[in-house]
Amino acid sequence: MVVTWIKNLKKSLSKSSSVIGEGIKKIIKSRKIDDSTLEELENHLISSDIGIVFSEEIITEIKNKKYLDTSVEAVKKIILNSIIKVLKPLEKEVLIGKINTHPFIILVVGVNGVGKTATVGKLAYKFSSQGKKVGIVAADTFRAAAVEQLEIWSKRTNSTFFSSKIENADPASLSYSSYLKAKEQKIDILIIDTAGRLHNKSNLMDQLTKIIRVLKKINASAPDEVILVLDGNTGQNSIKQASVFKEICDINSLIISKLDGTAKGGAVIPIGKTLKIPIIGLGVGEQKEDLVKFEADEFARALLDIN
């Protein structure tokens, strides 16, 4: 199982690792490391979506080593250690087994289009595979496609599906009634999908705060986990989106989606460095198994193509 997720991670980051790794090799190989080389390396790292601040820090670190070893492997190792240093503190796993409240409430938020609904399905699969009884709430009631997609995911993952038969139903009311039903049915984990129409920020804020408020009427500690889904392809945009959602609710965790088939895997670094929100998973494909846990060491090695 461990080998499988690492293999999936490496496969999903292959385009990123090819761009970053080959670029480093081309710049460093058979050349003296001087200011010109370092400037070229810095520009390459920035263009690889690693971020300006982090790229500057790496160049400073290389300078601090006094160019003692100018091999490609040595430079990659400096970058590897720098990435791990930033991302290691952000590793997190949702430990459902240690929670006594039933159901354990997970609120999933994010802008429409980031892969939020598919992420809910993948989370449901993750927990149902652990023998947990899972429920999914289609609280993005304004998008019929999202409701239909979640119903399909519920069948794929053997999860109980909660939705409203009323078009544009109140998301908070649905979340409240679903919570009560989940308690009656002794569901272990209830995952609530939410709307993400960022162009209408005030409505979004009202809806999410209302959902949280009504959940707290049943259990003052609810929701137990608030997960923000960010699209790994959007870089700085993701950071801006996160700041909006942080105004609305307490974000506990991040899942960074759509890292499959893209050369932008490096964006995970500035996202982590800037937001400092724990990362619980990476979306690396369309299948139910394609939500891999986040481990800084393996991510950094996959990104730089280091075994």
Describe the structure.
- With 307 residues, this protein is α/β, with parallel strands linked by helices.
- The chain has two domains: 2-90, SRP54, nucleotide-binding domain (Four Helix Bundle (Hemerythrin (Met), subunit A)); 96-294, 3-Layer(aba) Sandwich (Rossmann fold), CATH 3.40.50.
- It is 51% helix and 13% strand.
- The protein has twelve helices and eight strands.
- The protein has helices at 2-12, 14-28, 35-47, 52-64, 72-87, 116-128, 144-156, 171-184, 201-218, 236-248, 268-275, 296-304; strands spanning 104-109, 134-138, 160-162, 189-193, 225-231, 253-257, 279-283, 291-293.
- It has an eight-stranded mixed sheet, with helices on both faces.
- α3 runs antiparallel to α4 (52-64).
- The longest helix has 18 residues, at 201-218.
- The relative contact order is 0.18.
- The model has no long low-confidence stretch (mean pLDDT 87).
Sequence-ordered SSE layout with sheet pairings:
Layout: H1 2-12, H2 14-28, H3 35-47, H4 52-64, H5 72-87, E1 104-109, H6 116-128, E2 134-138, H7 144-156, E3 160-162, H8 171-184, E4 189-193, H9 201-218, E5 225-231, H10 236-248, E6 253-257, H11 268-275, E7 279-283, E8 291-293, H12 296-304
Parallel strand pairs: 1-4, 1-5, 2-3, 2-4, 5-6, 6-7
Antiparallel strand pairs: 7-8
Helix pairs in contact: 1-2, 1-12, 2-3, 3-4, 4-5, 5-12, 6-7, 8-9, 10-11
